[in-house]
């Protein structure tokens, strides 16, 4: 018998692959097994797709088999309350529309934050057997274990490690009367009428706010051990919240890209020499190593703009121009990494910079340790330390105003960067092809005139003939100067624009996390005003939103600080190169002019 279900509520599809439902509509199910809270089926209009499992009720045969085990049957005791008998709920018609699926337990493995990132594929620096194997960190001596030891077992006083949690104590009373069926009761919810309301979860479980762990953190579902070395401190500076400066700043050069081979010459790749200033020891890294590091950092830091790497290229990877351009792009990327107070001190980045190129075992241990990092997702926000005392609680309206202003700024900057990049690229193309051709055409015309004058064999005209011939050579040389000039001035500007376009592409997700937190605070305040939520619970949500706001504003301030530094330096370089270029052109013309003095 085909599986069927009845819609309990209306549902409007918002994303590709979803279908809309009407209350009381009967649907055909493709499977009774939900996929992270979503079922697949066909509605009465013949549309096939996904819809929230909690919005429908499966229609079972009279002699139904026992239901399958609960989805979270293996969750440790204390994670969720047992479901009460069905009779404890109101009729479906009196219930508010539920969330699309139950909130996952803390630590649930969502897809990596920043879904647009894809690791390097075979088109550019393939992953090799010697790069990745089936071993785990637990197998490696001295590597970080899969989980921290229990705090009580460690005596509660493990040096430099602190147990942090945003969870409230789970209620032992009955579920709130108005709670939708099929949903575990949120942690901290009591049986009293005042605390029966909870802040709702986003319907879109694939949004950045949810995938980054921001929602779970704000709603008090994060719990983990934070070591001193994992703490990320935000301080109040003259321009507002700022990341605490790196006490040991450093730089790292990227030099000498060389082509190397392996497997007896069957595979070729480009290796770059890195020399960090704080160690002075050179290491060699391939593009795939940069790519791996970027993926780890983008997943770990949802409120930090990790600079994008230069684009991959499937063909022409060993051409000199491409290698040179990529090295310059990687140099800009490295500069921004080293300049960021948080990214520069990240363990994965330090491992990338300092692990000897020849020690494959040490490299794999560090790689596995980074991939087993527990301070990701909701737990990442536990590592953020914000100021206390006066000014410690940010004004939400002021924060929202600043974030909206920055959002408008990034939109305008992105449009301007695209326009400037297009203009510079078009101007460079004209210099390399059009201007060179036109100047050399003028030079050729002067040369033809000189050749015509040489038919006059009289001695007094020889000087003029030579001067005109020299003028022709000058214009030919000026054409070459035009063709070479974009490498000196326009290309560096476009390299910088490319780097900042990557930053600008990151900030919508960062802003989305902060906006999502503000929305939860507003909702909790409304529940308090209506007498449906305890003030203490709402204050906890606001405190956690305050942490996200501090981090977001700190990242915005860092962006502006580094932007002013970069564009000041680049514009100075551009104008200096322009002046030098026209001085060279002037010199060529003056040399030609002086040839006529002796005629």
Automatic annotation (TrEMBL):
Which Pfam families would you find in this protein's record? BAR_3_WASP_bdg, PX, SH3_9
Where found, per UniProt? Cytoplasmic vesicle membrane
Q: CDD domains recorded for this chain?
A: BAR_SNX18, PX_SNX18, SH3_SNX18
Q: Where is this region: Disordered?
A: 85-197
Q: Which positions in this protein are listed as binding a 1,2-diacyl-sn-glycero-3-phospho-(1D-myo-inositol-4,5-bisphosphate)? A: 286, 288, 326
Q: Which InterPro entries match?
A: AH/BAR_dom_sf, PX_dom, PX_dom_sf, SH3-like_dom_sf, SH3_domain, SNX18_PX, SNX18_SH3, Snx9_fam
Q: Which GO terms describe its biological process?
A: cleavage furrow formation; endocytosis; endosomal transport; mitotic cell cycle; plasma membrane tubulation; protein transport
Q: Which UniProt keywords apply?
A: Cell cycle, Cell division, Cytoplasmic vesicle, Endocytosis, Membrane, Mitosis, Protein transport, SH3 domain, Transport
Q: Which family does it belong to?
A: Belongs to the sorting nexin family.
What is the protein's name according to its record?
SNX18 protein
UniProt source species = Sylvia atricapilla (blackcap)
Q: Which gene encodes it?
A: Snx18
